[in-house]
Amino acid sequence: MDVAEEAPGAPPGEGMVWIPGGTLTMGSARHYPEESPAGTVPVDCFWMDETAVTNRMFARFVAETGYVTTAEKAPDPAMYPGADPSMLVPGSITFAKPRGPVDLSDPLQWWAWTPGAQWRHPWGPGSTIDEMEDHPVTQVTYADADAYARWAGKQLPTEVQWERAGRGGLEGAEFAWGDELAPGGKEKMNRWIGEFPWKFRPRPGGARKPGTVPVRTFGPNPFGLYEITGNAWEWTRTWYSDSHPEPTSRCCAPANPLGPGVDASRDPGSGIPRKVLKGGSFLCAENYCSRYRPSARIPESIESSTVHITFRCVAPPPEASG
Q1: What CA–CA distance (Å, rounded) separates 253 from 73?
Q2: pTM, 2 dp
Q3: pLDDT by residue (tens digit) across 289-317?
Q4: SS3 for 55?
Q5: Backbone phi, then psi, for 259, in 5-degree steps?
Q6: Burial classification of residue 78, based on how many CB atoms lie within 10 Å of its CB (0-12 exposed, 13-18 middle, 19 or more buried)
Q7: What would you measure as the largest C-alpha separation in the chain, in angstroms?
Q8: 86/121 Cα distance (integer angstroms)
Q9: Cis link prior to 222 (omega < 30° from 0)?
Q10: Phi-psi region of 282 (alpha: psi -120 to 50; beta: other; left: phi over 0)
């Protein structure tokens, strides 16, 4: 673990922890191709929310600003040429557990566009966040997350910042706590146990059905971050590319690289720009998308919101922000 500087006084916001500057081996050569190539990257210090932004926190933001999320608005028909007009209504994407095994190459077997789904009703109009105030907020697009961060006087992390924080200083470790998925048989995160996407096995202390759990359900990583992997994917500010840049070309500026730029990030099919998501979610399983590791990453269209995406914020130290 790095020997690092101490935090410069009190955190700039409630519930933030100090992430010391240092180096990390970003990426991995052992897993999915988009995690390669691995290389050493220096990162400056910063503060980070110790948990994902919760429904309680997001509700305060909405109450004080009147903000309306993307999922609460009808999609722009110009962005979806040829779409069925009946589908161009406020709504979002939810998970629907199939009755039996399905083709894992076809995500439409378990994802569904759900009219009326939004952050207050994450699984659709019949759902609620009552008694879920301490769960991570979901059904938020990149714009929604960025709006909250700006209101809070913070920003979303870059991919480099997120991975530095997620690794907790444990260089080379497979997971945010070490090299064993469930050391001593004890679960360390909220993940899918069973055969994804149809056979889910509840376990003590975890969700009784696929979904998020309250923040601080599991212990923190060495930097004090809760549910940094599992539970829900987290937005970053970094534009997505299919691989990391070669280590020799990586930028080591304090701001961290923001990826290849908006145009290079565009989805080949839709043309919509994409950002990097980090951390995995409650839908990650050993038989499918085992991306509950700090090095893992996936692209997400900036206009997308789902029941398994959330965010947390960062802030620079006083000398960097002043």
Answers
A1: 38
A2: 0.93
A3: 999 999 999 999 999 999 999 999 999 88
A4: helix
A5: 90, -170
A6: exposed
A7: 57
A8: 20
A9: no
A10: alpha
